[in-house]
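Pasting two entries for a bug report.
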Amino acid sequence: MHVIEMMRIAAPIVLAQVGMMLMGVVDTAMVGRVSPEAIAAVALAHIYWANLFLAALGLLLVLDPVVSQAVGARDRVGIARGVQRGVIMAVALSVLMSLALIPGRWLFTVLRQPEDVIPITATVAHWLIPGVLPSLLFVVFRQTLQAMGKARAIVISIVVANVLNALLNWVLIYGHWGFPAMGPAGSAISTVIGRWVMLAIIVAGGWRALIPTLSPWRPESFATAPMMRMLRLGLPVAFQQWLEIAVFALGGIVIGTFGSVPLAGHEIVLNLASITFMVPLGVGAAAAAMVGRAIGRDDVAAARRDAVAALSVGVGFMALTTVAFTAAPALIAGWFAADAATVAFSASLLPIAGLFQIFDGMQCVSAGVLRGTGDTRVPMLLHLGGFWGVGIPLCLLLTFPLGLGPKGVWWGFVASLIVVAVLQMNRMRWRLAQDIKRLHFDH
């Protein structure tokens, strides 16, 4: 019964997570008909974006326990304070993230990426800057509506934005309806337009639920002490998100030293793994909201049941993706590229990616449950140990001294995810055995 309820609640959140990532994947797939260099450049630009965005997202995910626990406690003032502080954080983070997207050409030159890819990557990254603010504000309102159990506006905004992005890609990448063929830059422009439309729709569709959280604006939302308490809770989540995405980004940089075709093949597989990862990420977000609401109403037993249901759904889905990645790698890779060498290289990596799917689901859902309880610091340390203490050294060892080349990077990914999954699962079991109290920031 709890599994069915979790699936019902998680489904729209999963759709939202998949939809946000799908825009980048569709961009990569559609420029894949241009050239291997275009695939590599667009995928690399989206990895660049993702490194920054997921760190900012991690900070904003502090809204999961803050808002959901306030919802569970029926504390309307607490909900409003949390949302308004989230808006302030989103605006500040958008400035920092936009500035960080500017030095792309210099960064990828220093990182010794293929010379024919760097200028295109930098151009795409610059075009993505206008989409930063709507993306972060969307996260604030999405987390708020999730915590309230109101997901309709989220789903509609994601579906419309993705359809629009695909249509504009067709127009701007290839040059239809009188527009010039802009190639990779056209894909970035399409994505930015889609992100602004996504924000407009979620605000309009969720207005009745959102307006009480935004008006009246509460002067105490700017209070330094409560904001700092939220930041102290959110910073470990942000760092945890960054630790994970940075490992995969660093792996891409290492593979980029082997040339454009290996980099393009790697980015295709990484995009596929990122898409499947959005499902347990969405389930983890649903678990964070449900666990948070249970703790807000002082029902830890319900939080435990929600955690078990979330793991069943998230890990169950990832088991299916393991089968798909190992059974039909060439068929799947062929959807994203026309170049035979790129398809072959992607197909050689997909079965390795299939091995870590289940463990990726375990660690992601466990982290969501822990976030709902307000536990963020220890999970961040576990990520640090698993990904950077085990994953990075092993990636480099297998790739260079042991001579496995690009595949060594992916075997390092497998090992790090197994370690992180075991650590996070054990932390979750311990945490849910405790007496957990609601978070308070204003007193």
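Entry 2 (this is the one that rendered wrong in the viewer):
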Amino acid sequence: MAEGFANAMEGRVIAITGAGSGIGRALALNLAGKGALLALADKDGEGLAETRRLLGNRPASITTLDVTDTPALAAWVDGAAAEFGKLDGIINNAGLSVVAPFADCPRADFDRVMAVNFNGVVEGCRAAIPHLRKSDRAWLVNISSVFGMMGYPTQSAYNASKYAVRGLTEALYLELGQTDPNICVIRVHPGGVKTNVARNAKQVATMPGQVSAIDSAAEFEKAARTTSDQAAAIIVDGMIKRRHRVLIGPDAKMIDIITRLFPVSYYKRIGAFLGGNNR
């Protein structure tokens, strides 16, 4: 890399969704510290304003939007490219979850998770790629999850959305690798990260015999081993080193190993651990 790792992000224009808290905010602060110019978006206007305040006088624009509003999302991406004169990267990070067994999950909640976590990523990619093609070195980063590597009860909507993000990103990696090798396509699989996703997840129902959904979120908070700042540092390192796949946290690495070693039976092991008996 001609300009070296240290200056890889200097002057690069990066758009980030879900920048009002958690990994999105941490990414903004990390990238700004490396000289990147930022276009930040989030549905939470107050959280987004706080991210902007934390950035101080570093170059960044903020836009309050819902990623399911496709015209607004496209206008934000185009506007960022126009404002800064180019777009070198997009990190499709916005996401949410609902806790419920599939049979108990209201259609509207399931569809909302898919709309934000998957369709928002699709439209972010669709809007950004024409701009990224003009960059000499660009990044298209999609945030999946360890739940895009393994199924888990009460997370059918989240699983579906994150597996879809994984599949989309793998296809884009292969396609753009042929047509636009300047675009580094990265899929990210965070494990337990201390963010608002679990805390803010809509609690509908749990499996029979499990703790309440609220207690489940609290347990997740205790078990989460990685901070948002640590997650952001790993993602940015992956961008600089132009890796295709980024795992975040020891739990993500462990799940990766288990699903590779037992691709057919890993879910049976999980089911047995959780007390299930279906075959």
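Dev reply: Rendering is fixed now. As a check, the viewer should reflect this: The first strand starts at residue 13 and ends at 17.
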